[in-house]
Every structure is written in C-alpha cells, then in structure tokens.
C-alpha cells in the first residue's frame, strides 16, 4: 500500500533510531494501538491524549503493542520531529493479560503515563508512571491508583501548578472517576474527587478528555454518554469544570451537549480564557450524515459560539489544536464506516473555514491524536493504520499549511503622519512559519486589488495614490503565503495635503506710507487639511528664515 505525506515511528527493538521516510518497512507490526477497548465497530475513537510536546519542543507518544500473549506499553520520543526512539515502558504476559488505553501528559520535560495494567482477570490496575524527558529512565516506580478495579478509557493532564489529574471510565458502573495528586508532580499519592459531592454521571460514560487552563487555573472534563449499551442508542456529551476555592477545588455538575439523536467523540482545549469543544454529531438517527461541530464556551460554560464546520457520511476522532489564535481540526472522514481518510481544516482570518484537505489518504487510518499547541503553523498529528498495523506521524514538511501569515504591518513614509507627495514609500512585513510569505496586495479601498506583488523582506514598496484629493488616505495590505492562505488586512493612514495655504498680509493697518523702517504686519492664513505651520517674511523677494506661524 502506498502512503504519502506520512511517516511512521514504531519499531520494537529498544532505542533504535528510525529515520522517517515514506513506505519505510517495519520489522514488527503494532497491534491494537490502544488495547482491545477501541471504541465502535470501525475503530471510531480510542480516547485520551497519546501525543504531547515538552517545554523544549520534544515530542512524546504512547501506545500499546500486543503480540500473542505478550503486551507492551510503548513510549516513542523525538527531539526533532523526524527521528524517533522507542522504549518499552512495561510489559506483561499471559492469556488473560493485557495493557489498555494509555494516555500521557508532559509537564516541563517530565512525562506522565496512565494506563490500565491487566496482569490477569484477578489483577487489573489503573496505573501511572513518571519518566524522564526521553522516557528512558523512570523517575518513579509504577503507582497503582485503584487496585483490582476494572477501568478503561483513560486520560491525564497537569494544571499550571503541577497537580496531576487522571480521568478513567470505571467499567463496572460505567462511571467516570477523577483522581488528583495530593502533591504537585508527585505520582505517589492521589485522592478521588467527586462532582458536587456525588458521581460525575449516572449513564454509560466513555472517552473522557481533560483540559487545563493556565490562566484561570480551571480544569475541564468532557466525555460521551450513552443511555443504553446498543450501538444505535442516543448519545450526548457532558462537560464539567473544576474551579479553585482557596486551597480546594469544586467540580460542578455537567453541562450537556445533545442533538436530537447523537453527539460523540469530544475533544476539548482551554485557550484564550475559553473552553473550545469539537465533536461529531448525527442529528436524528444513525443513518444521518455526521456533522463536525465546534463550540466555544466561557469559563461558566455558557455558549459563546456554535458552528457546523463540515458534514460527511461518518466523522470520527476529531482533534482540536491552535496555531496562535487560529483553530485547526483534524479528524477521520469515513465514507462507508470502514474506509478512512484523515482530513484537516482551519479557520480563516475572516471567520470562514477552509475546505477540508486530506492529510493522509491511507484507507485504514484511525485514532487521530494531536498536540493542542501548534508550532510553526504546522500541527503534529499521530495516527494508526489497522491494515499494515503501523503508527504514523505527520512530518512537518508533509503537513498542509492552513494558517495565514501573521504579524503583518505596514508603515507609510517611515511613520510620518503628513505628506504632500501622493507617491508613498511603504515598509511591509509579515511572518509565516510554515510555507513562508509569498506575495502582498496593496489597496486604497478596503478590498484587495487585482494584482498581487512578490513579497520581499526589507525592501521598500513605492505606491502611487490613485485617490489624490487632500485628506486622510488609508492603505490596506494583505499577505499571502506559499500555500495560498491570505491574512486579514493591516492598514495605516497618512494625511495627503497638496495645496498651499492661502494667506494675506496687511502693513500698518493698510496705510499706504510709512515714516520708519519698522512696520506692523497683520498676517492671516488658513489650511483646512493639515493646518498652517510656519511663515516666511522677506522684503527682497527671496525667502528668509522660517518662523512659527502667528496669526
């Protein structure tokens, strides 16, 4: 099978460096990826965060490999996004053994991994490990959060103070449980938190996702709920917020997101003081096409905006990330529930959404995972292929650039506020970390002109005004990158004044003769555009020194 625009990262030998290249063969396949609890009949979603980036830019991923009765929890690490090293964090063996549904988070350079460790039917634990930056040396031994209780669908996050939060579905009651560390960055002691003194939910809860807000200290939890176990049952999404109350925190009851029939596969990101949610929905029945829906909430979970971005036969595993303030969404688009494409869309500066572009045309690509904070305009995306059983990662050079240039500016005549010359000198600048700025468009009307000019850094642009009456003149500039994304307009204003002030002078109150060489002058002038600034007085016909204007 030919694969384009993707690279894969797994090899079973410990600490073997793999150079990314398309169609690179792997000696051992990766089976299961998340464990047997993959969600849905067609690998719809697997829950939890499985890709993260450290403070220094290092990438970390976690997934499961199962070969017969041998189960391995695999950590993949890359310092440059191109070369990955893999490590077996832990493994167990046995006919009834398993390792399921891992998730990871990074705080600074430390890596935290939560997973379900099923050594036997009588020994099943929700466990957590803390590792060094490259994942090679455990900082702490495996800690059991809840012994001999069946869990699956996990997630993990750390707040701005380093407190650890773990979410997991308790499979006996299908309730989501939350555990919080008693000490920042310490995995040895946890307490189970409740929602306003009770359970978080009463229905069947799946696919919990956590998000933390470094600005206000809040923690958010989203998950999907089924009222019954059937595949065609209605579903909705529940969202909780945890607010700090002094040294304590309180989880508030859920706000529910519910279409007429089904809302599923939530992903949440706390950004710019708001909570952003993306999910898949079917409005009325399981036969309906799916909508990709994007919502923004304030800190009190009041809806600020609600958009349907795209519709397709099936939409699975949507993931949300941000390049600056530009939201990007990656998701699995499936025409028949079995054949998959990974697609990506982003929001234009004008508020519209870019038509989805294919990130991977691999027919069996599933389980999309991204890093919420995008660097260099290009998202990091991880996924799994169910046919060739390999884990893939989108290298920066292969990811579509869907973010317009930013930091645009225009300076007219070096920043002057007035000019008498309708030919202007413009200094233009913008940045685009992904594909680079390619061209500029200069206009006086607020709408782009017909002609785009090549963009060159540190080169002045000469622009002749076509609208030349005296007054304020505003120049609008758009920047376009090499991928075709166009920025919002930036502008600057200068006052054009091409007319001299009309004036008059009266000598000695209009007398025809003077008896001395010293005379009294009454000078008047006006200029409605820029005002009269100075005057020049001479009795020879040749200009002398300029003086401040005094009427």
Automatic annotation (TrEMBL):
<protein>
    <submittedName>
        <fullName>Phage tail protein</fullName>
    </submittedName>
</protein>
<feature type="signal peptide">
    <location>
        <begin position="1"/>
        <end position="21"/>
    </location>
</feature>
<keyword id="KW-0732">Signal</keyword>
<dbReference type="InterPro" id="IPR013783">
    <property type="entry name" value="Ig-like_fold"/>
</dbReference>
<dbReference type="InterPro" id="IPR023296">
    <property type="entry name" value="Glyco_hydro_beta-prop_sf"/>
</dbReference>
